[in-house]
Amino acid sequence: MSLSIRERTICLLKIILLLDLMSCCLKCLVSKVERRLSENLSRRDGELNLLIREGENVTSRLRNVLTTSLRSPGPVFRPPLSTQPPRHSPPEPQPRGFSPGRYSPGRYSPGRPYRSELTLEDETTRPLKSDFPRSRSMSDIRQQQQQQPQPQPQGSDSPK
Length: 160
Known about the structure:
- Keywords: Signal.
- The chain is an all-alpha fold and about 160 residues long.
- It has helices at about 5-70, 100-105, 115-120, 140-145.
- The radius of gyration is 40 Å and the shape is elongated.
């Protein structure tokens, strides 16, 4: 059975229309997939940026806590427990409406805890900074190597 030219032309047109329809569907699918991927990536990028910012905030807060409240440059000064000011110091001028007892636990008590309160250690038994050995530098290592006697190579030079 052979097809006439007219029938062949109709079949070819149908094939072309089907191919055109398939290409439109594929383009539509590709654009939808690209849109979904870009939405997911941008949302994940936003989440990652948020996590990074939160991590930076946490590290800066920890650094501030460690450098301010755990620093003890020398002997620890503890303010007197009484709420009366020392007799030799003049009274501090206070702005109107300010009440020290309202904003802090006591007039002379600090706003942050002491190191010993945070770590539960006795400050008298804590080693001083000078008790730890100094770390060795490259010049220390070179000096030590120069001071050590060089080993003699074993061979014909050694006495028998």
